[in-house]
Structure prediction request, 346 residues.
Amino acid sequence: MAGKTSDNIDELEVITYEGHQFRVGHTSEQSSQRLSGLAALAVRSTQSFGTCATATLTRFARSIPGFRAASPGYNLDKLLPEADFHLAQALVGTEGTCVTVLAARCRLIPNPPARVLVVLAYPDIYAAGDDVPEILAHGPMGLEGLDDNILRAMELKDLHPRERTLLPGGGGWLLVEFGGGSQQEASDKTRELVEALRRQSHPPAFSLFENRNEQEMVWRVRRSALGASAQVPGEKETCEGWEDAAVPPDRVGPYLRDFRRLLDRYGYRSSTYGHFGDGCLHTRIDFDLKTKEGIAHFRFFWGIRGRSRAFLRSADSAVWCGVYCCEGLVIYPEIGKLLSLLGLDN
Prediction:
């Protein structure tokens, strides 16, 4: 509905791990004149860092087709000159690795009083991903996705049996929410999308929910995806670590297909869910990190990052992930420099 959290932060009050406390925001030359001496020092350091970040991000843009600065955690694009070296937005999502946030000044966004939810069902999650660009063109408030492995795990755990019956049959689902000033406005937006999708050669099945109680039941299924995919009875333990893969929304389908082929090649299984409208995808993978053989296989898999980088480029899927990063060896030194500037490199 309103982009990433970092896009809606104007200012942060922070404290560093050396005990220095100050406010940060966008740090243009004009605004830096109003800051305290300590904060101004942080600004100058940030601007110096921005020069380095600019070169790094330029390398990303040139090496990966369709590059999108959407890295979870470290928003280095916010330190570029065109972003006014917005240190506050750069710190959003760093999860305590740089500073502790004491207070935040946020931009308020409209919250439409009326909502309508439509659940679209596809043969698989890849076909669902293919429809993301068309759906986004209709301006939904929310666009979430999950695959059949999530539903199967819920069935094995007997989670939300009534709620699951509300989803139309399929192998991959998109939950699309529209808002409006009135119920009629929200309904009209939803029906426009449904009619557009019906004109496809292979349209998805759908279920429409205008009742708030039913909407909440459906959202409960999506919110339970993380818990459902962990510790599934009778199956291997799954691990986080490939979370928050950032993919351009118009490339979600191709990325998921390539990702599945990569996992199949090394005998791994996973479930997929996430914020498809923002191109932020989550998964848990059944890495064996307890046996000698499993760890050796994992290291071999991890060692193919260079080859998988070319693999992902061949699909034009610009992926920037917090832990598995297709250009990780480029970005991590820059993150290290940011930590150093904040006195956190010890």
Strands lie at 9-15, 21-24, 100-106, 114-122, 142-147, 172-180, 205-209, 245-246, 270-275, 280-285.
